[in-house]
Specification:
The complex is a heterodimer of chains A (252) and B (392). Chain A is an alpha/beta fold. In chain A, 35% of the residues lie in helices and 24% in strands. The radius of gyration of chain A is 17 Å and the shape is globular. The N terminus of chain A is likely disordered. Chain B has 392 residues and is an alpha/beta fold. Chain B is built from 13 helices and 17 strands. The longest helix of chain B is centred in the C-terminal third of the chain and has 17 residues.
Chain lengths: 252, 392
């Protein structure tokens, strides 16, 4: 059922916060997408995810961050370091965390907008916690972003089949709830067949790789150019910038 | 109250009755539903009455389970909770437990520990929280291969309550799980996010048939599982027939009436297939709109009554629907006076009302019990039985 008078209007795109990636995507990630962000570790996947969360927040789109290998306190510090406006969003309860990591290392602080779980094995609890955060956001916002960092940890704790069943359920539901989601997954930890299976759950893929002189990014699906190919980018802790050139022709 | 052979949660006991020795009761629930609230409460109820409980935990810390049961126990120190830990080893942690599984991915080890616990505690009931995550730790093929031994082991307890998350498993797994002696079903009524939860005893090998209808519940803290009566609010323009509708569907109804127009609220109670429903009628004049919003915020469903012969009232009707609409309020439109000459058909009315997709329009005669009840039933079915994805 579509409410005739939604609390806020639903944007068509959620910008990635990376200007040239947005033009590659013809405006941003189409609202409601489930995107696999795939590539080797340490190539800035998390930075890209943070850019999108912050860009969304800037437009009034709240965010649920599901983290399995960073503590809430650390991710919050990174958000603060990346964007001066960030604390204001927290004050409005627009940033939520579901944290399966902090308790295990004794770092679960009492941040009120976080749910701390015992570990990444309680997938039913995880589904319930994500749902609770989304339900709270949906009371006042029609759309939100969701980042799950990472799929690889879920697979490592259980197995690919179990993580797949979990994601199949989660993606179906969160898309109905109006989420635009990024699912981070590390190259080198999974069989090619498993990666393919996870890709099939998604509406698109953003892939990163190392190239001779640096890093490259490629977008598949998501209304991007039919075959944009690999494009150079650079990143540091706070910024992510597409530097390479790509064809201007886009699918409308 | 002695719970003896009962499940241990009143809302479930009603449908399940006494559980025969050696039975397996499966609590099947949609992903994300907090089903362990049922098992923690049941375990607490049993240990409070001196019955030992073996609690097998598979997906979180046994300490958390101990704390969860303690909320439902009078004297936590004195209760006989025996923890079987098929979780900690996966994280490399060690909680103080009675039975530890060194490798929870090895289901033979799990079975061996279950058998040992049954030998040591012949008077105990067993809780498996959860059976599906035992499968998740291994895989479908290994789970299916070992299932007969799991079933044999759990049958050695007084009885067993096992949670089962309805992840998208294969057909063979579903068939195997159907071997449980009784199934309690917990569903989330959701529209992207879960809005309401319903519970129903789906079947019991020993019970009356058919078992009870689904009821809505919530988890109170403290208190545990609480069943609540769904509220339906009846809205519509003045003169559409709301008061008539409320009185027709209700066994008992009261109205505050002044000069033939409802200025306060009509309130009735209807019973449908054993489910009790509160029905609230609201005044149609726009000066009462604030009251409308308040009632709607407490309701689970709304019926918009419109006069099929009076299309001029549709703008007002539609604006009332917009006023009460919020996420989670299921709605249906009752096209009253459909038996009169000049009445619009549901299709014509849908167009004129610009009714949102997913809101059904049903022709009805508010003075006719069957006709009005059919509208209420269709709405309640949407609330209680909506599949994931709702009516979207």
């Amino acid at each position: 059922m579509t409410p005739p008078t939604p609390a806020t209007s639903v944007p068509k795109f959620v910008p990635t916060g990376v200007k040239r990636l947005d033009s590659l995507l013809n405006g941003g990630v189409p609202a409601g997408s489930a995107v696999l962000v795939y590539g080797p570790p340490f190539l800035g996947k998390e930075v890209l995810a943070r850019r999108m969360v912050l860009a969304g927040l800037g437009l009034g789109v709240p965010s649920v961050n599901v983290i399995t290998n960073t503590a809430t306190a650390d991710l919050r510090r990174q958000f603060v370091a990346s964007d001066k406006a960030y604390p204001a969003h927290e004050k409005l309860h627009m940033v939520r965390f579901v944290d399966t990591y902090a308790k295990g290392i004794g770092a679960a602080d009492a941040f009120p907008d976080a749910i701390y779980l015992d570990g990444a094995l309680d997938l039913n609890g995880l589904a319930g916690a994500v749902n609770r955060m989304e339900a709270e956001l949906l009371a006042s916002h029609a759309a939100h972003t969701l980042v799950l960092d990472s799929v690889s940890t879920l697979v490592a704790y259980s197995n690919a089949q179990t993580a797949f069943r979990f994601l199949q359920n989660l993606i179906g539901r969160t898309r109905r709830a109006g989420a635009t989601s990024l699912f981070l997954m590390d190259h080198g930890m999974h069989t090619p067949a498993d990666v393919q299976t996870f890709k099939h759950l998604m509406t698109g893929t953003i892939e990163v790789r190392e190239s001779s002189g640096g890093h490259q990014i490629q977008v598949q699906g998501l209304g991007a150019t039919s075959n944009p190919g690999w494009v150079d980018y650079k990143f540091d802790e706070r910024s992510f910038e597409v530097t390479g050139s790509f064809a201007a022709g886009r699918i409308r | 109250v002695a719970i003896g052979r009962r499940f241990g949660v009143a809302a479930v006991d009603r449908g399940l009755g006494d559980i025969p020795k050696g039975s397996l009761v499966l609590v099947r629930h949609d992903p994300g539903v907090e089903a362990n609230a049922f098992t923690l409460q049941a375990a607490g109820a049993h240990v409070t009455q001196g019955r030992p409980v073996v609690y097998a935990v598979t997906d979180r810390s046994p300490t958390r389970v101990r704390e969860g049961i303690a909320d439902h126990v009078r004297d936590p120190e004195d209760s006989r909770i025996l923890l079987l830990d098929a979780h900690s080893a996966l994280l490399g942690t060690a909680d103080k437990v009675d039975y530890r599984v060194d490798d929870p991915t090895d289901l033979l080890q799990v079975v061996a520990r279950l058998e040992q616990a049954a030998r040591d505690n012949p008077e105990a009931i067993l809780v498996v929280d959860s059976m599906s995550s035992l499968l998740d730790h291994a895989d479908e093929a290994r789970f299916l291969a070992i299932w007969p031994r799991i079933l044999a082991a759990v049958r050695r307890f007084q009885f067993t309550i096992a949670l089962w998350t309805s992840w998208p498993y294969g057909e063979d797994v579903e068939k195997t799980i159907a071997q449980a002696d009784a199934v309690v079903r917990l569903r989330a009524v959701e529209e992207g996010v879960m809005l309401h939860h319903s519970l129903a005893v789906e079947r019991a090998a020993w019970g009356k048939s058919p078992p009870g209808p689904p009821v809505l519940y919530k988890i109170d803290r403290p208190g545990g599982v609480m069943v609540y009566v769904p509220k339906v609010v009846v809205i519509g323009p003045a003169g559409a027939g709301k008061t008539t509708f409320v009185h027709t569907v209700s066994e008992k109804a009261t109205s505050v009436d002044r000069m033939g127009t409802t200025v306060a609220v009509d309130r009735g109670t209807a019973t449908l297939d054993g489910i009790k429903i509160e029905v609230w009628g609201t005044p149609g004049q726009d000066r009462f709109d604030p009251l409308l919003a308040t009632l709607a915020s407490q309701a689970t469903g709304a019926i918009l009554v419109v006069d099929a012969t009076m299309a001029t009232s549709f703008t007002r009707a539609r604006s009332m629907l917009d006023k009460v609409w919020r996420r989670g309020l299921r709605a249906i439109i009752a096209l009253n006076k459909s038996d009169l000459a000049g009445a619009l058909s549901p299709e014509q009315a849908r167009k004129k009302l610009a009714a949102p997709d997913g809101v059904a329009i049903v022709a009805c005669t508010a003075t006719d019990k069957d006709s009005a009840t059919a509208v209420l039933r269709q709405l309640v079915d949407t609330i209680l039985l909506a599949p994931p994805g709702g009516a979207a």
